[in-house]
Amino acid sequence: MSLETMQPNPAWDSASYEDAVDTLGAHNDELIYTVWGGDWCKDCRKLLPDFGAALEAADVPADRIEEIAVDQDKEGPGIEEYGIEYIPTIVVERDDGEEVTRFVEDEDVPPAVWLAREIEDALED
């Protein structure tokens, strides 16, 4: 099931987030983004449309983005396996399943910026 909140925000300005888009784009064929969220969730509605736009601007293929809708009890596929407590949560993994980083709900910068910074630190040493 896909999330309406992952539909890219048409007003999002990729030029304002060039560094994040460049980093996401540099790894667009080697990382998988799994997004847990709910269309009913105000934090998801606030954060995920811009993240969807960032993934689109970075040309991340659709088959590298998995959207998992959870219910209002925050139950859904992979919740226990990945230890998901808050939404949105975005887990970034390599093809072999190794977790690179994760964004959880209330970081102090937008998901694309936060994840790009973490991906750079993890993969571009």
Overall description:
With 125 residues, this protein is an alpha+beta fold. It has a single domain (17-109), classed as 3-Layer(aba) Sandwich (Glutaredoxin), CATH 3.40.30.10. It has helices at residues 18-26, 42-57, 79-82, 111-123, and strands at 31-37, 65-69, 89-94, 99-104. The chain has a four-stranded mixed β-sheet with strand order 2-1-3-4, with helices on one face. The radius of gyration is 13 Å and the shape is globular. The N and C termini lie far apart (36 Å).
Topology:
Layout: H1 18-26, E1 31-37, H2 42-57, E2 65-69, H3 79-82, E3 89-94, E4 99-104, H4 111-123
Parallel strand pairs: 1-2
Antiparallel strand pairs: 1-3, 3-4
Helix pairs in contact: 1-4
Key traits:
125 residues; 34% helix; 4 strands; Thioredoxin; Thioredoxin_domain; Glutaredoxin; four-stranded mixed beta sheet; globular; Thioredoxin-like_sf; 4 helices; 19% strand; alpha+beta
The backbone outline, from C-alpha atoms, is globular
Give the amount of beta strand, in percent: 15-25%
Provide the spatial order of strands within the biggest beta sheet. Answer: 2-1-3-4
Can you name the CATH architecture? 3-Layer(aba) Sandwich
Biggest beta sheet attributes: 4 strands, mixed
How far apart are the first and last residues' alpha carbons, in Å? 36 Å
Total number of beta strands = 4
* SS element count, helices: 4
Based on CA atoms alone, the radius of gyration comes out at: 13 Å
Q: Helix amount, in percent?
A: 25-40%
Question: What is the CATH level 1 assignment?
Answer: Alpha Beta
Order of helices and strands: HEHEHEEH
Give average pLDDT, whole number: 94
Going by helix content, strand content and strand pairing, the class is alpha+beta
